[in-house]
Design a protein that fits this description.
about 400 residues, alpha/beta, Rossmann fold, 5 strands, about 5% strand, binds 2-acetamido-2-deoxy-beta-D-glucopyranose, Sulfotransferase domain-containing protein, Sulfotransferase_dom, signal
Length: about 400
Amino acid sequence: MVRRNEIFGISLVAILCLLLIGFSQKENTNYNRSHRYQQLLDFEESFKTPNNFTIPTPSIKDVISMQGTLLLHELQDYQFPEGDNLEDYTLSTNGRPLRTIIISTWRSGSTFLGDVLNAVPGNYYHYEPLLHYGIIQIRSAPHAEPAQDTLKSLLNCDYSSLFNYLQYGMSHVYLFTHNTRLWNQCEVYPQYCWNQTFLNQFCKLFPFQSMKTVRLRLWLAESILKDKELNVKVVLLVRDPRGTLQSRKHRDWCPGEPDCDQPNIVCADMVSDFRAAIQLGKNYPDKFRALRYEDLSLNPYEIIQDLFDFLGLHFHKDVERFLDSHTRVNVGGVSSTFRDSKSAPFHWKTDLNHSEIQYIEENCDEAMKMWGYVKTNNVSNLRDFNPLTGYNIE
Ligand SMILES: *[C@@H]1O[C@H](CO)[C@@H](O)[C@H](O)[C@H]1NC(C)=O
Ligand SMILES: *[C@@H]1O[C@H](CO)[C@@H](O)[C@H](O)[C@H]1NC(C)=O
Ligand SMILES: *[C@@H]1O[C@H](CO)[C@@H](O)[C@H](O)[C@H]1NC(C)=O
Ligand SMILES: *[C@@H]1O[C@H](CO)[C@@H](O)[C@H](O)[C@H]1NC(C)=O
Ligand SMILES: *[C@@H]1O[C@H](CO)[C@@H](O)[C@H](O)[C@H]1NC(C)=O
């Protein structure tokens, strides 16, 4: 049986290589990754179907090896910095991944920004690793330390102590579904999806490790930034509290949770983040950036290119394609120039009434001044009102 497994493993890899060579030869003009990927999945699926030839299900080792092959293919036109190659970036070869954490809060555009980073070929996405803490903000003890440890473990691809995280994820699979490259395998091999042995090895294959969290306040990120071995970069994503709170009104999990629906608490966090941003910008100028969701939405290509330069990532055509399809929704048909991403941050102008806007502005005076959000001062025509001005964290 052992020999049969070995033979199976070798043939599997051989067949995969042949398939990949076949695919890449056809790809010149008719580039269709999802079609090619489907073929690979079908091919894998054929091993899953119990049949009478008693071919064993691929082992964890087989799946890891298949993913390695997929990654080589996916990254074939990725431009690493001069002189570098994939092995320099993967933990499985004792390399050092490019690691990025997006720190934000609920309904502030972090899902969008997280998906932009995940559009980079070879990215492994640690989506919302603090989901199991519920609808709370982590600012200090008792949650701060275990939360920081969870983030560090994940960035090191070490799932061995993450019992609560995995337990929660098994019943809330969106913890993993955003991590598309992992989830593709989870759908084919559900028996391995939540297995720590599998996850440790799988994660270590990926050169880019991204993470986003909406529950950890910025100053707690310093202990992660400080870790030289991790070599992580942190991006703080901020949004106008009027936009954030308007958007949260429509989520059933937010109303009634003070950390989520109380303007004074939300804005106190923004003030604390502002002070932390100044500190981090001073102490880690090459590793920390702040970004406003409104600026990102109004100018996605320019801001993302600039952000990728800072992160050391190649602005790959897959990222461009992602932006094309997610920021240029032509709502009014072919001739319309309406772009969805340009109006998305400003829905609060039409959705909130005067007293709601006033209530937020009264509670957010300091936060709005810091981050460059202009108060309405009860203007009658909100449509033409520009809520943005400059801010300075230097
Ligand atoms: C790519 O392949 C998928 C799956 O076979 C198909 O649904 C899709 O229409 C194809 N896209 C293009 C642009 O050919
Ligand atoms: C495979 O085996 C099952 C059960 O032993 C049998 O019912 C089925 O007909 C077999 N299929 C083929 C294709 O031989
Ligand atoms: C994970 O997979 C390994 C190797 O197949 C196995 O030994 C281990 O029991 C699995 N762990 C769990 C929690 O299922
Ligand atoms: C504004 O909206 C709130 C919440 O929907 C509502 O309770 C309040 O009566 C409204 N105020 C005015 C002046 O319309
Ligand atoms: C703001 O405008 C509303 C509606 O026009 C009005 O009811 C309210 O009294 C105004 N508030 C202030 C402070 O001027």
